[in-house]
Write a structure and sequence with these properties.
Largest interface: A-B, 25 and 29 residues
Structural class of chain B: mainly beta
Radius of gyration of chain B: 14 Å
Largest sheet of chain B: 4 strands, antiparallel
Strand content of chain B: 35-45%
Distance between the termini of chain B: 25 Å
Number of helices of chain A: 22
Helix content of chain A: 10-25%
Oligomer: heterodimer
Number of strands of chain B: 6
Structural class of chain A: alpha+beta
């Protein structure tokens, strides 16, 4: 390319500066004020990527966030699918093209283009169905070819944060309408936020040769924005995309750091009293053969590159249009030194003003002509045109390297639609425009389908005043509206969606997803007549651009095919985000250790000193086991288990949910909450209790202790504590209205240590327990108060291990002393793993394992607890479940024939060996452990009709974990150790 | 995300609240409720499009139980009131 692309003057770039950047390893120069797209065009780079399906060469097509083609990766292994049109150029920028291998110039998969007739719509659904087994082979190849860009391999190096905001008026869009609205609202005293996705305020004012109040559009915008930024009640956020408009006027913003700064991406959630949408409109192309060639560009973009960046996108241009706005492209290109070959207009007449401007420049206008096709390779070479009414075959050739095409403007109603607003098809502008609002929204400017610059300024002022007034600010009458001029901005179009005889494999509707007009017609023929079906079958509008330049053309072709008006076809649903948002911004700072809060027991530091291995239990960190030097996990767990069975172990159970229930009606309340009969529970005694849900399933288990007539102390499982609290609260508030009861969560006030094992009474005596009766004489399931090692304590004689045990509750802050004293007198700590082994040996149920939300107390062998006649939660549900119980899963024990063979939690149970397939499972292993006490593996299981199968053999299958042979095991009672409970007694 | 006007705390974001159930799922009088009544309210709900009175808990705020009259498609909220018993009002 010998002729210069950059104009000698004009635009908003700094011609004295220079910025060096890289694209696909080649070094180029740009100017301050450029975007990556304008700099590439200035350097004559026409091909910037390959298309997703056919790997066709593609060039820069637009100037904004609607860009379907120019998607690049920024930085090596950096963010893929970044729009070159939205990247401000900075020194040292490295960008890479996508979807090509090995290079952009020579792409192996480009041969797919030749196969286009075979790769018709619905291709995947039709072709790869047969033979079924071969899918694995196909998939391998398809995965390599398919997809847009490549995800980075290394971890995201960027920083993100979440922020929240409130304002009176949120103005989305910083063009003439938005600026005008913001000024009026701000002058009325409202707190105004003004946001725009672009790095520059002014919107299309930067891209047109408009005049406002005898200044250029961009000068006017700069002055307005400077004024607004000087006000304390206005916040201007550029490079900030309002990507979602949610319930109750919540607007989500994605804010990029200023170009070149190492700031954080910020995701805002802003609640605005009123929202003004001044989101403008997006130009659309027309469907004809070869409309995807590099050099085919939206007419607005072609003049915008000249006007804003001083870049000629080509040297010989043809303009093809159905509306007046593209005449400005011809004027602006001509005035910048581009040879405009012709303006091809499908209409009979244009606005006389713009027509005259074109004639003055001696540019031929071909009225009532249409463009038949564009031709070329790595860039556009020529186009063919013919009279619109003429015969199909006869066309003439126009040589050009730039085709500026405009088929009208589609209002950017995305946010309006997301907010629940209605839309309607407008014949005058041949576009979908907003109808009724659903939320506290105002619309201003081109988004309403009112395109003139004067309209935009006027609309903005009116919307600004209305919004401020609704937000409670008294407004002066709107200022005298600025006098503005922009030729040919009325916005009326003669609908032209697809050139009639251009049904070719290269007449694209959706450039990003390679969907052609033919694909749309074929889908319609095959019966995909609804817009939503059409979208999913052809992938029209499903790219990262969400069909911003393509959806309306697809709808129109579909409507034409079905012989129905476009208005009756409807649109697909507009969903957030408006443009893609980095996942990191959505996650924000809540990653890794900040993903969720961590709760630590008051004894946490003691466990850490003992080098415990921690495990997560709900939000809590709890010791899993305490490995001695050189000890494996299995060794440690076996040692800890044996300690409890033969000596004395201690475990931190501070994480259990703890509640005090008090009041004159406490006993009545307890009776309703638990399935057990509790009225006869005497003061000073405890009981194991089950809470049900109304449907009869077990909700939680724990202990109920009656401290006195009107005061109870409850413990719940660690993981369910919060949920139990909510249930108790709900029940008290909604179901037992009028009861005088208070429920207080005391989980964090008490630390709790369970002391268990045959030597536990001796250790406690040595530590010094002062209580009555003496601790070793305290009966099983009794409670008393006293002191332990001088610290006031509540002592509960309950056991989760099957040994003599006692839970010591002490004030959280004094627990370390008690723990250390117990250790000093010979108690050895054990963790969750050993606790689990001990409970499985005893056949005690675990919440989540056996009480899995689908089992009743009767299923798990607690039938004796049930059956009380007083109304309690779950009473009717339980009756209903067991009225027609059938073959319910029941809790059993399992002993494998081979005592050394491990059974895994989740393994399935079968009646006969090797059975597979649906319906063959008769149950599953719910908990399993190696029992050091018995020297063999044991398991608890939920087995259909289990209790009547005692003594039978079942097969334990675990194919997912790679076990090849099903283990034979015999069904037994779910208790492997001390079934009579003699060891619990004093 | 909804903006819910808690009668105790003022307008607060939805994340502070927990949805509990539709008022159709609430007992008329739990103590004297018959089995069929329970199963009707638990299992046979109409779930019609329109305004529903729903039970919410301001779990991340004052803890009040609230009845919210909310449209299940448009999410418009007509009213927010304490659930019952006057108990929440004192919290």
């Amino acid at each position: 390319m010998t002729r210069r692309r950059r104009t000698g003057s004009g635009g908003q770039v700094d011609r004295r500066g220079a910025i060096s950047f890289c694209f696909d390893k080649r070094r180029y120069q740009g100017l301050p004020g450029d975007t990556l797209a304008s700099a590439l065009l200035a350097n004559g780079v026409t091909v910037v990527g390959r298309s997703v399906k056919y790997h066709r060469r593609r060039g820069i097509f637009s100037i904004g966030s609607e860009e379907p083609n120019a998607l690049v990766r920024i930085g090596n292994d950096g963010q893929p699918n970044t729009r070159a049109t939205m990247v401000p150029l900075i020194d040292g920028l490295e960008a890479w093209s996508q979807n090509r291998w090995p290079t952009l110039g020579f792409d192996v998969f480009a041969m797919l283009g030749a196969l286009a007739p075979l790769l018709s719509t619905g291709f995947y659904y039709k072709t790869f169905m047969w033979p079924r087994r071969a899918w694995k082979a196909y998939e391998h190849v398809i995965r390599k070819v398919a997809g847009l860009g490549e995800p980075p391999v290394r971890a995201d190096p960027d920083a993100y944060e979440h922020a929240f905001g409130h304002c009176d008026v949120m103005v989305v869009g910083c063009g003439p309408a938005g600026l005008s609205a913001a000024r009026v609202a701000a002058d009325a005293g409202a707190d105004v936020w003004l946001v725009d996705e672009s790095p520059w305020a002014g919107g299309w004012l930067n891209r047109e040769r408009a005049t406002i109040d005898s200044r250029t559009g961009s000068e006017w915008a700069a002055a307005e924005i400077a004024y607004l930024e000087s006000l304390a009640n206005v916040r201007v956020l550029l490079q900030t995309t309002a990507f979602g408009y949610y319930d109750h006027n919540l607007v989500a913003l994605a804010q990029l750091p200023a170009a070149g700064s190492a700031g954080r991406q910020r995701l805002w959630r802003v609640r605005a009293s009123r929202v003004i949408l001044a989101t403008g409109a997006i130009e659309r192309p027309c469907v004809f053969a070869g409309n995807d060639l590099p050099g085919v560009m939206l007419a607005g973009a072609a003049r915008a590159y000249v006007n804003q960046f001083g870049v000629r996108a080509g040297h010989r241009a043809v303009v093809f249009t159905n509306n007046d706005s593209a005449y400005r492209t011809a004027m602006d290109l001509h005035d910048a030194g581009v040879t405009v070959v012709a303006v091809v207009d499908c209409r009979t007449a244009a606005d006389p003003g713009v027509e005259e401007e074109i004639r003055q420049r001696k540019i031929p206008i071909l009225k009532e002509h249409v463009l038949v096709c564009a031709a070329g390779g790595s860039r556009l070479r020529h186009v063919r045109v013919r009279p619109a009414a003429g015969p199909a075959g006869r066309s003439s050739r126009l040589k050009c390297d730039l085709l500026a095409v405009s088929a009208g403007w589609s209002p950017a109603i995305h946010l309006h639609a997301q907010s629940g607003g209605a839309s309607t098809y407008d014949e005058a502008t041949a576009s979908v425009i907003p109808a009724d609002n659903r939320q506290a929204t105002h619309l201003a400017g081109a988004v309403c389908g009112r395109f003139g610059l004067a309209h935009c300024l006027d609309d903005g002022a009116r919307a600004g005043a209305a919004a401020a007034a609704k937000a409670g600010f008294s407004c002066q009458p709107p200022r005298a509206v600025a006098r503005s001029r922009l030729p040919g901005d009325a916005g009326e179009v003669a609908p032209l969606w697809a050139v009639p005889d251009s049904a070719s494999g290269t007449a694209f509707v959706d450039l990003q997803n390679d969907v052609t007009g033919g694909d749309v017609e074929q889908a319609c023929l095959e019966g995909y007549e609804s817009v939503e079906h059409l979208k999913r079958y052809t992938t029209l509008g499903m790219g990262t651009d969400q069909g911003k330049t393509s959806n309306i053309n697809g709808l129109a072709i579909l409507a034409g095919r079905r012989g129905r008006p476009i208005a009756s076809i409807g649109t697909t649903t507009f969903r957030p985000p408006y443009t893609p948002v980095t996942m990191g911004a959505v996650a924000g700072p809540e990653v890794r250790e900040r993903l969720e809060p961590v709760r630590r027991s008051p004894l946490h530091d003691v466990h850490a000193e003992l080098a415990a291995e921690f495990d997560h239990n709900g939000l809590w960190l709890r010791p899993a086991y305490y490995p001695a030097a050189g000890e494996s996990m299995r060794d440690a767990v076996e040692r800890e288990t044996r300690t409890v069975r033969t000596d004395c172990g201690i475990i931190d159970v501070s994480t259990l949910g703890k509640f005090e229930v008090q009041g004159p009606d406490a006993a009545r309340f307890m009776e309703r909450v638990y399935v057990n009969r509790l009225t006869r529970l005497a003061s000073g005694r405890s009981r194991y209790g089950l809470m049900l849900r109304e449907d009869g399933m077990i909700f939680d288990d724990g202990t109920v202790t009656r401290l006195d007539e009107s005061r109870y102390f409850l413990t719940t499982s660690t993981s369910h504590a919060a949920h139990v609290h909510e249930q108790l609260d709900y029940f008290l508030e909604i179901c037992c209205a009028g009861m005088e009861v208070a429920v207080t969560c005391v989980t964090e006030y008490w630390a709790a240590i369970a002391v268990a094992g045959p030597r536990a009474p001796a250790v406690l005596q040595a530590v010094g327990v002062d209580c009555s009766p003496r601790i070793e004489q305290l009966p099983f399931m009794a409670v008393t108060t006293g002191t332990v090692a001088g610290i006031p304590a509540r002592l509960l004689r309950i056991s989760f291990s099957g040994e003599w045990a006692c839970e010591i509750y002490v004030p959280a802050r004094q627990s370390t002393h008690v723990w250390n004293e117990l250790r000093r007198h010979g108690a050895l700590p054990y963790g969750l793993e050993a606790m689990d082994t001990l409970r499985i040996e005893k056949g005690f149920i675990g919440v989540g394992a056996e009480a899995n939300g689908r089992t009743t107390p009767i299923d798990l062998g607690f039938a004796r607890m049930t059956g009380k006649t007083e109304r309690h939660i779950g009473q009717y549900g339980l009756q209903r479940v067991h009225r027609n119980a059938g073959n319910r899963l029941e809790l059993v024990g399992l002993l494998a024939d081979d005592p050394g063979a491990a059974m895994n939690q989740g393994a399935q149970l079968l009646a006969t060996q090797g059975q597979r397939g649906f319906g063959s499972s008769i149950g599953h292993v719910s908990s399993a452990a190696y029992s050091p006490t018995l020297g063999r593996h044991v398991a608890l299981a939920l087995l259909a009709g289990g209790r009547s199968r005692t003594g039978d053999s079942v097969y334990v299958a675990d194919p997912l974990r790679g076990s090849k042979r099903d283990l034979r095991a015999s069904v037994c009672a779910p208790c492997f150790y001390d079934p009579d409970g003699t060891r619990l007694q004093p | 995300m909804h903006l819910i006007e808690c009668p105790w705390c003022g307008p607060r974001a939805q994340v502070e609240f927990t949805y509990h159930c539709d008022s159709e799922g609430l007992p008329r009088d739990w103590e004297s409720e018959h089995e069929t009544e329970l199963h009707e309210r638990m299992l046979n709900r109409t779930n019609a499009i329109g305004f529903h009175v729903e039970l919410w808990n301001h779990a991340g705020g004052c803890g009040s139980w609230l009845l919210i009259d909310r449209h299940n498609r448009t999410h418009d909220i007509r009213s927010v009131a304490y659930a019952c018993n006057g108990r929440s009002g004192g919290k």
